[in-house]
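for the recovery benchmark. tokens below, seq after
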């Protein structure tokens, strides 16, 4: 394939990644404000946040296994976006807590699997064309950053009631772009679930997912209630957008650096550093009372999520064979977003409602330190032998 076709395929995939991660700004950062504008309590907002991860526990695996089974990603993405679009339209005319709860349950069935599948397509495309995964994935960060600030100003001007309408428009754009991206086969052979089960029984993988889950609970607690915390500090919608923008922009240089130098560094030391930075980030969040300080603290997203995500994906791809990559990334998403989101939404909502913001973030900090100890135990266990990761499975 000539360089023109390679550039075209990569650029369409970059545009798609840019757009779908822009949609995630609405779901994670502005949907909670939309719920708040309807008069829902923090506990109710926590339940609405948690119900999606609960649904995605099986929807991520289901759709990714279907993708592996039928060796297509593009057609699955089209189905998911059509479903998301229909549910967004229904959500726009819902107003009661029970009605939104029911609709959002189905919405998340189509929403969550898009991201592990998009990352799988980026990894597969990058490998086929001899490029770095982060060269494509970084456009997700750019999309998140761009839409964070643009949507913040739009909602300040038009009102929070426009949140769902904006979601519909962005979903239509993403759906349009799917027809131009090149499909990738997510596996070399049809998936053998018995072979996958053998992989999942490996202690190395179970340990990894357990540590990821613990770290992710604190991370998702912050995702769910950051905008609520900033609102309580007196922030406007556009200032909330700047807070989200600060985190998104900060991870971009880290992605660039890791795409160039990441392979020269061992994964576990990088992951340990990221865990400590997560703990510091949440400690500072517990201490501040200024929305402007929150924006500065959000720049720590670069050395927390930025380092952890890229390094963890790299570590995981060494643990799981290529023909199980979509399902492996779906399992990672279950731990990083779904199961952790379920716990952080319900558990975090109750803590925030009854104990307040300071204690809420101290709990998140403690969970980050527990994850650090979990990863450190594996790192220290390896020092004497310096064994290769692959030998452990």
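predicted aa per position
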């Amino acid at each position: 394939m000539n360089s023109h076709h390679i550039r075209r395929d990569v650029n369409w995939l970059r545009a798609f990644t840019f757009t779908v991660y822009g949609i995630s700004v609405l779901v994670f950062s502005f949907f909670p404000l939309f719920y708040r504008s309807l008069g829902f309590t923090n506990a109710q907002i926590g339940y609405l946040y948690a119900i999606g991860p609960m649904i995605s526990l099986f929807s991520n695996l289901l759709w990714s296994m279907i993708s592996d089974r039928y060796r297509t990603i593009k057609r699955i993405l089209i189905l998911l976006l059509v479903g998301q679009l229909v549910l967004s339209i229904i959500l726009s005319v819902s107003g009661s807590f029970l009605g939104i709860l029911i609709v959002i349950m189905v919405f998340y069935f189509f929403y969550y699997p898009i991201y592990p599948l998009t990352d799988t397509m980026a990894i597969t495309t990058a490998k086929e064309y001899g490029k770095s995964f982060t060269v494509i994935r970084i456009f997700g960060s750019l999309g998140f950053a761009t839409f964070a600030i643009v949507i913040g100003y739009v909602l300040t001007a038009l009102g929070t009631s426009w949140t769902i309408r904006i979601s519909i428009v962005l979903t239509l754009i993403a759906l349009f772009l799917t027809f131009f991206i090149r499909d990738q086969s997510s596996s070399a052979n049809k998936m053998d679930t018995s072979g996958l089960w053998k992989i999942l029984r490996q202690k190395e993988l179970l340990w990894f997912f357990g540590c990821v889950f613990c770290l992710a609970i604190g991370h998702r607690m912050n995702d769910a209630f950051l905008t609520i915390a900033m609102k309580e500090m007196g922030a406007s919608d556009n200032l909330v957008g700047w807070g989200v923008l600060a985190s998104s922009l900060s991870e971009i240089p880290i992605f660039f650096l890791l795409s160039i130098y990441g392979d020269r560094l061992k994964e576990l030391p990088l992951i340990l550093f990221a865990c400590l930075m997560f703990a510091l980030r949440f400690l500072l969040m517990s201490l501040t009372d200024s929305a402007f300080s929150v924006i500065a603290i959000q720049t720590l997203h670069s050395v927390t999520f930025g380092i952890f995500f890229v390094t963890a994906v790299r570590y995981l791809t060494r643990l799981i064979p290529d023909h199980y990559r979509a399902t492996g990334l779906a399992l990672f998403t279950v731990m990083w977003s779904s199961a952790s989101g379920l716990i952080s939404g319900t558990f975090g909502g109750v803590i925030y409602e009854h104990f307040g913001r300071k204690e809420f973030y101290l709990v998140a900090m403690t969970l980050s330190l527990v994850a650090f100890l979990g990863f450190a135990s594996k790192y220290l266990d390896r020092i004497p032998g310096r064994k290769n990761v692959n030998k452990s499975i």
